[in-house]
From TrEMBL:
Keywords: Disulfide bond, Immunoglobulin domain, Repeat, Signal
GO biological process: immune response-regulating signaling pathway
Matches recorded under InterPro entries: Ig-like_dom_sf (IPR036179), Ig-like_fold (IPR013783), Ig-like_Receptors_ImmuneReg (IPR050412), Immunoglobulin_dom (IPR013151)
Originating organism: Piliocolobus tephrosceles
A Pfam family per the record: ig
Protein name listed in UniProt: Immunoglobulin-like beta-sandwich domain-containing protein
Domain Immunoglobulin-like beta-sandwich: 50-126
GO CC terms in record: plasma membrane
Gene3D superfamilies the UniProt entry points to: Immunoglobulins
Taxonomic superkingdom: Eukaryota
Record carries keyword Signal: yes
Key word Nucleotidyltransferase present: no
């Protein structure tokens, strides 16, 4: 089927028959929706209150457009098997639709897009919105504070009240890498050594 035009958008079904019984047909297949994109101007997609969401909190994904769309479709390749249908509501001369995700978990940290369509042609869609990346925060913050706390270790071999070693731990972050760097300072000798802890 192609080249595809807006006229191809719609719901399709099929059924079959045996060659020796051409008048006896099977039951209809499940419907298959074909959506044609890129016909209308792309809508906007926002995360409220923002795209950085603490684990367990709620985020609202808002599709909006200055076109009066009767339908919005929220899409994520990993989360939804099919685009999620949202009913468009009039707003400020245009339209919008909200989708609330409760108890945000790391599995829902994904890239989302939305499309819009007018009421009389629900399968003729707009161009996709700009991608929206949802990031779950929380666990990394707790790890940061636990690794940032320094601690002191008594060393009996130094033999004096002032003789002890101090471990100062910090965070080494580069893109997606997280490592712990500890610097051991011997207060009595003044020697400094750095160990990388994997």
């Amino acid at each position: 089927m192609g080249p595809v035009t807006p006229a191809h958008a719609g719901t399709y079904r099929c059924r079959g028959s045996y060659p020796h019984s051409p008048t006896e047909w099977s039951a209809l297949s499940a419907p298959l929706a074909i959506m044609v994109t890129g016909v209308h101007k792309k809508p906007s997609l926002l995360a409220l209150p923002g795209p950085l969401v603490k684990s367990g909190e709620t985020v609202i994904l808002q599709c909006s457009s200055d076109i009066v769309f009767g339908h919005f479709f929220l899409h994520s390749e990993e989360i939804f098997e099919e685009p999620l249908h949202l009913v468009g509501e009039l707003h400020g001369g245009g339209s919008q639709a909200n989708y609330s995700i409760n108890s945000m978990k790391s599995a829902l940290a994904e890239t989302y897009r939305c499309y819009g369509s007018v009421t009389h042609s629900p399968y003729v869609l707009s161009a996709p919105s700009d991608p929206l990346d949802i990031v779950i925060t929380g666990e990394s913050v707790r790890t940061f504070f636990s690794l940032s706390l320094g601690h002191r270790v008594n060393d009996p071999g130094l033999g004096s009240p002032g003789g002890h070693k101090e471990d100062e731990c910090g965070i080494l972050m580069e893109r997606d890498l997280l490592g712990e760097v500890c610097t051991n300072r011997d207060r009595e000798t003044g020697d400094t050594s750095t160990d990388q802890v994997s």
